[in-house]
Amino acid sequence: MRSEREQRRQDEQQAAQRVGATPAHPFSGLGNAAVARAMLARNPATFTPQGYEEAMAKKAEFMDILYRRRDYRPSTGRGNFDVTYDAKGGRLVVTVRCHFNFLGGSESDYPDADPEELAWDPKASAEWKTKFMELVSAKWSNTFTFHCTKPWWEDLKANVQIRFVEDSKDPHYDLNITKIPEDEERGSSVTAPKWWQDKGKTKFDSEDLRPHDKAAGTQRPAVHEAGHMLGLADEYPIKKGKKAKTAAHDLLVRTEFGHGVARKRDGRVMSNGEDIEPEHGVTFIEALRVVTMMKEWSFDAKPPTPVPTELIDGPLPKPKQDPLAPEGPEVAFA
Amino acid sequence: MGLPLDYERRVDDEPEVRWRVTADGAFLHARGEGELVEKRRFSAAGLDALRAAIPDFAALAPAPEPDDVTLEERWSADGRTYVVYADEPPALTALRAEVDRLVANR
């Protein structure tokens, strides 16, 4: 009887070794062991207690550094901003330096306007400047949080904070703001800097901070144009008769999300509305990867990697009672 | 360069504003798809100054069309048209100032 049981036990152990699974027993953390074994198979040098210690030491070094990059230009060919990643604070700060240039309106555009409707007064221009920086900074901030996917670094985050600030000496953009009569509308645009230029330029008007009715929504033009200053392209359809083109951030979106950018009129901020979608964070995650020199960042949080222990590949703990003992197991009665 | 002088600003391929100065001194203006309506009549001296300010559009360096065109401004005279996308040539800035001056009657 005993020899049959012994034989069966040996057969089970051999079978388990052949498939690489940990034999089940009541005290082992089988789930963790299975995960760790899979990781070991993938990268035997890393997923060990020693690998864990090394990763944690590198993480401590990583967190001691403030990562900065001036004048970052996204691969979209648009956008120009500074990036700072503060690992301890979990923040990615994106700063756009703006030089404000207030221009009088054109009488030929508005021949019925009174002269004062086409001229800035110092109070109005100061107010526009402050409101613009507050509006677009608040609208684009706290919208994206990126998560580190490196094993055991999963608690690292990057909450994106956007700051539009005034800097007349070394701006990323010259903002030309034309005075137009109240409740009128005028087209606005952003021209990205070419690679040899220090700064881009924009055309705004005095009414760009209030909502405008669009074909498929309502939008404050300043919020949309700020998206261009941050590296995004238009998402509404292109000019009639022109060859269909994908948006400049299409490739980044495709890489991150597995789908492209739809070119249609809807409520998205780079189309006709103000909805900021996860896809609009692609230039920031690209900047984060560049500034930290680390590619393991994602829009989605990854579950923490189990911490390896010596138990994982060590000997199994001895059962308290030997199921193959000649006598039956002791049973405690209440 | 002679008159008439035409100007049109288009936003997302839709007309936003148009105006024309005719050879007899009428300044016609329209918003969007609206009809041109006479808003001013310039003096002979004003028209002479305007003619002198119109550059030879063919001599201006053509502006490259950007990937995403949001705004375009079209200046036309003598059957020639110059399109501004981002950077306005100084000669056109001066021309606009001259038209503005006449419209404002300064």
In terms of topology, how is this protein built?
The complex is a heterodimer of chains A (334) and B (106).
Chain A (H helix, E strand, L loop, with lengths): L1 H18 L10 H13 L6 H15 L2 E7 L8 E6 L4 E13 L18 H19 L4 E4 L8 E10 L6 E6 L10 E3 L8 E6 L6 E3 L2 E3 L1 H9 L20 H8 L24 H11 L4 E2 L36
Helix pairs in contact in A: 4-5
Chain B lengths: L4 E7 L2 E8 L4 E6 L5 E5 L2 H10 L17 E7 L2 E5 L5 H15 L2
Antiparallel strand pairs in B: 1-2, 1-5, 2-3, 3-4, 5-6
Helix pairs in contact in B: 1-2
Key attributes of the depicted protein:
heterodimer; A: 334 residues; alpha/beta; 2 domains; nine-stranded mixed sheet; 11 strands; B: 106 residues; alpha+beta; six-stranded antiparallel sheet; 2 helices; 6 strands; 24% helix; 36% strand
Radius of gyration of CA atoms of chain B, rounded to a whole number: 14 Å
SS element count, helices of chain A: 7
Percent of residues in helices of chain B comes to: 10-25%
DSSP helix count of chain B? 2
What is the oligomer described by this structure? heterodimer
List segments of chain A where confidence is low: pLDDT < 50 over at least 5 consecutive residues.
Answer: 15-31
The radius of gyration over CA of chain A amounts to 30 Å
Determine the mean pLDDT of chain A. 86
Number of domains of chain B: 1
Helix content of chain A: 25-40%
Q: Tell me the span between the first and last alpha carbons of chain B.
A: 23 Å
Number of strands of chain A: 11
- Which strand-content bin applies to the residues of chain B? 35-45%
The dominant shape of chain A is elongated
Strand content of chain A: 15-25%
Largest sheet: number of strands, sense, barrel closure of chain A: 9 strands, mixed
